[in-house]
Amino acid sequence: MTYHPKSDFMTVMMQRGFLADCTDYQALDEAMVAGVVPAYIGFDATAKSLHVGSLIQIMMLRWLQKTGHKPITLMGGGTTKVGDPSFRADERPLLGPDQIQANIDGIQKVFATYMDYSDAPTGAQMVNNAEWLDELNYLDFLRDIGRHFSVNRMLSFESVKSRIDREQSLSFLEFNYMILQAYDFLELNRRYGCLLQMGGSDQWGNIVNGIDLTRRVLDHQIFGLTSPLLTTSDGKKMGKSADGAVWLNADMCAPYTFWQFWRNTTDADVGRFLKLYTELPLDECERLAALEGSDINDAKIVLANEVTTLLHGADAAAAAEATSREVFEKGGVGDDLPTLEVSAADIADGISIVQLIVKSGLAKSGKDAKRLIAENGARLDDEPLTHAGLMIDAAALSSPIKLSAGKKRHALIKLAD
Fold first, then answer.
1. CATH number attached to the domain at 254-329
2. Contact at 8 Å (CB) between 280 and 274?
3. Which of the listed CATH numbers 3.90.850.10, 3.20.20.70, 3.40.50.620, 3.40.50.150 matches domain 8-227?
4. What is the predicted pLDDT for the residue at 87?
5. Cβ atoms of 14 and 36 closer than 8 Å
6. Which residues pair with 245 in a beta bridge?
7. pLDDT tens digits, one per residue of 360-413
8. d(CA 258, CA 255)
9. CA atoms within 13 A on the CB side of 341
C-alpha cells in the first residue's frame, strides 16, 4: 500500500506495525485531520482479566487518545451471553449475569491504566452493549435489522466457514453473534457518534457487517480498521506462555511474571514488540532491535521495563528487574518472585516436592512435575532436584526455598506468618 497518511493516528498505525487493513484509508485519514474521531474496540467479558493477546488493541486505543481522538471501550455485557464463534473449534461456555459483571469489573481496572476516562472531548468512555441488547424485542429486531443480512454472505465469512468446513457444530445462538456485533456499531454511531471500529483481522467480517448495516439504516459513513493477528516468531499465539495465558490483572499474573514474559521474548521479535507495545521513538526501537549477541538482552530488558511500566507502574518494573538480576546473575533469591505461602498446620505431616511444584504454578499437574524432575529440569535452591518423592516439612521451610523449572521460571515457597 502506497498511501501516505496526513493524520498523526494513521501515521502511528502504519509506522509502528498496527495496521493490517482499512475500509477507506483516505476518507478515515481526512476525518481524523478534520476533528476528533470517536472509535471503539469491543471486549467480551469471558474472564476477570484480559491477557497479553488483547494488549495490541489496548495500545491502539491508547495511541488514538494520545493523537487527539476519543476511545470507546465497549464491554460485551450483552454479547458475552452469546459467545463469539470467530475461529473457535467449539462453543463458548455460557456465563450468568453476575459472573459477566464481575468480569467487567476486573477488566475495567486495566483500561484505566492505559487511558484517561474523563468528560474531555478526547476522554475515554466505557460503554456496555447490554445497554441496548438487553432491551431488544425479538420480532422488532428481526424486522428492522435481520432483513438487512444475507445468510449466504454470512456463511462465506472465514470465521463461520472454517467451523463448517471442519464439520464442527455452529449453533444458531453463535450464528447470531455477528448480527449483534454489527448492531453494536450501529448503536454506537447513533448514540455516541462513533465513526470507527477497530479490532484484530479476524474481526474484519463483523466490522464490515456493521459498516454496511449503518449505511443501510442511518445512511452514515463509518470506518473499519484491523490489526494483524500476532504470533511470535516461533509460531506461538501471542499472550500464551508455558504456564498458560499471561493475564494483565496483577492478581492473576504477578508483575514479576509479566515482566519475565517480555524479558523472554525471542531475538527476532524484539524490534516488532518494541514498536507495538512501547512508546519509545521509532529510531530507538530500531537501534535496540539491531543489537546482536548478548547485547540483545539489554533490548529485552528495555522492552520488559517499558511494557511493565505502562501496566503496573515504574516501581513494579524496577522491582522485577532487580529480582531478575538477583536470581539470574547472582544466583540469589529475589524478593519479588512469585511466592507460595503454606501454613505449618497444612504441612504438619510434610508435603511432597511434586505438590509444591504444582501449587507454585511451575507445572500444571503432578504428572508434569514428575516429568520435569525426571528430565533434570527442576531445581531446589539452584541445585538439581532428582528425587520426586522428596517431602518438605515445616523445619525445611525455616527459611524460604526457591523452586525452579528450567532456567527462566522460579517461585519462592515460605511459611505463612
1. 1.10.240.10
2. yes
3. 3.40.50.620
4. 44
5. no
6. 240
7. 778 888 888 888 888 888 877 667 787 787 887 766 665 677 788 877 677 777
8. 5
9. 4
